[in-house]
Specification:
This protein is α/β, with parallel strands linked by helices. The chain contains 16 helices and 25 strands. The strands form 5 sheets. The chain has a 10-stranded mixed β-sheet, with helices on both faces. The longest helix has 32 residues. It starts with a helix and ends in an 8-residue tail after the last strand.
Length: 762
């Protein structure tokens, strides 16, 4: 008998159902871990192949023996085909939309991929049905064989394409001009003088990890999180052997052999499915051992029991809240150990210098822990009391999220701590620079605090953890990722080591030279791979002229008594700044001013309040972002008319070339109108927009340049030669004059003054 193409699709769809059922049955085996893990995982490929072959044979025999079976297969197959279509649409659509920020592009690409996938299934199914469906003409059987061969070639081509890394044509060439003079600080990536010892602590009953079970050096008591967590599924209890009322406190520790006192650093890993079992807490050994060699006690905290599992937990406050809370519960252990001195660390831990480091959701949890540390009660339930109050001085976040916890719709502020966020341009998990949102909420206040945001080209999400690797997404969705631009894992770990070490040295040991690495990442060039880096920085010495979050009127400064004026601008708008995919990740939740020009003489001037007195060691600072966009035509209004300028200024300006950095002039202005200025590119090395393409779908995703800011700090003393006998402390205004390129667009933020000055500009 013969089966039609639709029946053939039904046969293949039935094969898919069998495969899905097989995986659904075996998934709990994988979930419940050893010893069954050791049996299942190595043979999963063989099991799937055998199952597919068996199901194919059974369906073929039934189709030959019972003529009504094909009708059933056809009905089931049609329904399953629709399920397959919806699944492919969802899986690929979510990935593509998250990467491109375009829902329409995701729909188009997903439909095309799904249609091609189903067409391939139909050909395979019909060919199998023809070959196995009984007595048919040899010519028809030959055609079926050729069709299968063609499908095999197509599948092989797809597999080879999926294994290829993609295109490396989207790598930003870093600009290395205007390098600052070398600092006296030693290479922060060099190993320190201390010998490093390791141990682990845990419940002693952990049946998943020997290091926290029978191999634990220090036994710890569990903690009760039942008041913070939603329903704890029985499958989770069966897997781990405990529920939310008895969460263990487990960690690996690297510590220097010496007398101390040593600062304490906790590291929190991120989220990943338990079905992709990896010891994420061990993936920061490269960083922990490095810091321990430089005199820090480092504990990498285990929170795998909070990670995603097949039963898809749901908690009212989110598991991220428990992650942050649990870090503070670990600090209670260290406070007790330091007081009693009955551990291998003795009393060598300096509990007045504590830092938290987190990656991915762990980065959000670290910031959340610092916020909860100052509270007396749970922000969502006043019945729950807190008794923390640790001296947490610093929080560092690697590719963090900032989306999983809000207290009644409000994000918690982050006060009284130093903050560092490090993010990669090719992050295909947290595509938007969410840590910049946390950065905006950090209040450096009146204390000697700082915050820094570092955006690095060619870095992804997973390679900050040596256990996660270059694929930020698993399964079929990983096939479409563009991996070719990525730096190596060793290079990305080097980036993390350089900036995290500099941050801890600056904030826990008051190292002024290390602070300069954060203020101006150009100081880190000798220690980094050849990649473009955008760095934003503020500290407690900042005197704001304009921050754009504290008033409505674009014509007044943040300091009372100051005014803002613009001439010849094509665009002057104060706006919130989108993250890479605003539909998925929202905005930066802080404002900046967008300025565009397309004629000579355009400028943006901030007149200083009359009572503002600057110190001789003050520096001008501001943050700018280069969106890489073209200036719009000027509006036909009187306000947009060209200003009266020197005729020479009206001469045509050079056009900006693709890939070149933005340029404009910075001027100091006195009451009589005289001014001195310097070109941005003469005082700084502005990096061009970091363009990326996260997927390998050129027809769907265009290269994008997310809006990331770069901080510029220029000592007023750098203008001394040009100013002559002018008093630099009695300025009337600061002006951004757009006289270096014929047109352009720039975003400005955090304009003001800081002191003391950075290293002199060469």
């Amino acid at each position: 008998m013969r089966l039609g193409w639709l029946q053939g699709l039904g046969v293949t769809a039935a094969l898919l159902v069998g495969t899905v059922l097989l995986l659904a049955i075996t998934q709990p085996i994988r979930y419940f871990g050893p010893p069954l893990d050791a049996i299942f995982l190595p043979g999963v490929g063989l099991v799937v192949v055998v199952a597919l072959a068996g199901i194919t044979a059974v369906l073929a025999v039934l189709a030959v023996l019972f003529r009504r079976i094909p009708l059933i297969v056809r009905a089931v197959g049609t329904g399953v085909a629709l399920v397959v279509l919806a699944t492919v649409l969802y899986v690929f659509g979510f990935t593509i939309a998250g990467a491109t920020g375009s829902l329409s592009a995701a729909i188009v690409a997903s439909v095309v991929i799904s249609a091609a996938f189903l067409a391939l299934l139909a050909v395979v199914g019909a060919s199998l049905a023809t070959l196995l469906g009984g007595f048919v003409a040899p010519r028809r059987r030959a055609r079926a064989g050729y069709a299968l061969l063609a499908c095999g070639v197509v599948v092989l081509a797809v597999v080879l394409a999926a294994r290829s890394p993609g295109s490396d044509g989207f790598v930003t060439t870093p600009v290395r001009e205007s390098a600052p003079p070398p600092l006296a600080v030693a290479d922060p990536s060099e190993r320190g003088p201390y010998e490093v010892a390791t141990l682990s602590y845990g419940s002693g009953l952990d049946r998943r990890r020997e290091a926290f079970g029978t191999g634990a050096t220090i036994l710890t008591a569990s903690v009760d999180a039942s008041a913070l967590w939603g329903p704890w599924p029985r499958a989770r209890t069966a897997h781990w052997g405990f529920d939310a009322s008895a969460l263990p406190r487990n960690a690996h520790v690297w510590y220097p052999v010496g007398d101390g006192p040593f600062p304490l650093v906790l590291i929190a890993h991120g989220n990943h499915p338990l079905s992709m079992w990896r010891a994420a807490d061990e993936g920061y050994a490269y960083l922990a051992e490095h810091l321990a060699s430089r005199g820090y006690v480092v504990a990498s905290v285990d929170q795998h029991f909070l990670n995603t599992a097949p039963e898809r937990y749901a908690a009212p406050a989110g598991e991220t809240f428990v992650r942050g809370w649990l870090l503070l519960e670990h600090l209670k252990l260290w406070r007790r150990w330091q007081a009693l001195g009955d551990t291998p660390f003795g009393t060598s831990i300096d509990m007045t210098r504590v830092a938290l480091i987190g990656h991915s959701r762990g980065g959000e949890a670290a910031a959340l822990a610092a916020s909860l540390n100052t509270l007396e009660r749970h922000p969502d339930d006043g019945r729950v009391r807190f008794d923390f109050g640790f001296d947490i001085a610093s929080v560092a976040a690697l590719a963090p999220t900032d989306m999983f916890y809000q207290a009644d719709g409000r994000r918690l502020p982050l006060e009284g701590v130093n903050y560092l966020v490090l993010h990669g341009s090719n992050d295909n998990d947290v595509q938007g620079f969410q840590g910049s949102r946390t950065y905006g909420r950090v209040d450096v206040g009146d204390d000697d605090l700082l915050k820094a945001a570092i955006y690095v080209d060619r870095a992804n999400h997973g390679q900050f953890n040596s256990a996660w690797g270059p694929l930020d997404r698993s399964g079929a969705t990983g096939w479409i990722l563009n991996r070719a631009p990525l730096m190596t894992a060793a290079e990305q770990e080097q980036v993390a080591v350089v900036f995290v070490t500099s941050f801890l040295e600056a904030t826990l040991r008051a190292d002024a030279e290390a602070r300069e690495v954060l203020r101006d990442p150009r100081h880190a060039w000798p220690y980094l791979p050849d990649v473009a880096v955008h760095g934003q920085y503020l500290d407690a010495t900042f005197v704001p002229l304009a921050t754009y979050d504290d008033r409505i009127d674009p014509g007044v400064t943040s300091l009372p008594g100051g005014r803002i004026m613009g001439e010849g601008l094509a665009t002057w708008i104060e706006e919130d700044v989108d993250l890479r995919s605003p539909a998925f990740y929202g905005t930066r939740e802080s404002r900046a001013v967008r300025l565009a020009w397309n004629r000579p003489g355009a400028h943006y001037t901030l007149a200083l309040p009359a009572d503002l007195t600057l110190s001789a060691d003050a520096s001008l600072t501001f943050a700018f972002a280069d969106p890489g966009a073209a200036a719009p035509p000027p509006p036909e209004t009187a306000a947009a008319a060209p200003s009266e300028t020197d005729p020479e200024a009206e001469a045509s300006l050079p056009a900006r070339t693709e890939g070149s950095p933005i340029d404009f002039s910075l001027e100091l202005v006195w009451d009589d109108g005289t001014s001195v200025g310097v070109a941005l590119t003469e005082a700084f090395a502005p990096q061009p927009p970091i363009r990326t393409r996260l997927t390998r779908l050129p027809l769907v995703e265009r290269p994008s340049a997310p809006t990331t800011f770069q901080s510029v700090t220029i000592a007023l003393a750098s203008f001394a030669d040009a100013a002559g006998d002018r008093d630099l402390t009695t300025l009337a205004a600061v002006r951004f004059r757009f006289d270096r390129q014929e047109s352009g667009v720039v975003l400005l933020d955090d304009i003001g003054f800081v002191s003391p000055p950075p290293a002199p500009v060469p």
